[in-house]
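Sequence in, structure out. Go.
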Amino acid sequence: MNVNYIASQARKKIGKFCYEECGAYCCRKGYLILTPSQVEKVTQGRLNEYIDKGIIKKLDNGNYSMNMGTLDHPCPSLKDKICTIHKSRLRPKACREFPLFIKDGEIILSKRCLAVRLNLLYPYVKRLLMMGLKFR
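Output:
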């Protein structure tokens, strides 16, 4: 098995937990940097509405920052705790990889994730460590 497969399996394993127990906290209280194509997908064509609300800001480099800092303004693609763009190829990479990131042979776990704090990814992380990866 390869590293990316194990990481993917770990993320899939916590999917039901995220919906039923956590309530998609990361999508309700997170922060993302988005490319122009990603921001269009995430806002479902309502970019100006979210800019007007102050949730999304255009950055100098042409990308966008999205702050989902209040429960009143979760990710625009989150409906009833379910991501409506989950299977889209334009879904932001940070969303696809959350809460387990692999970078340069290192494992990065988001401490904001309840599944991580409850150690639900332990069996997968253990396998990754046995493959020679290190914690960052």
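Check: Residues 3-13 form the longest helix (11 residues). The CA atoms of residues 50 and 115 lie 29 Å apart.
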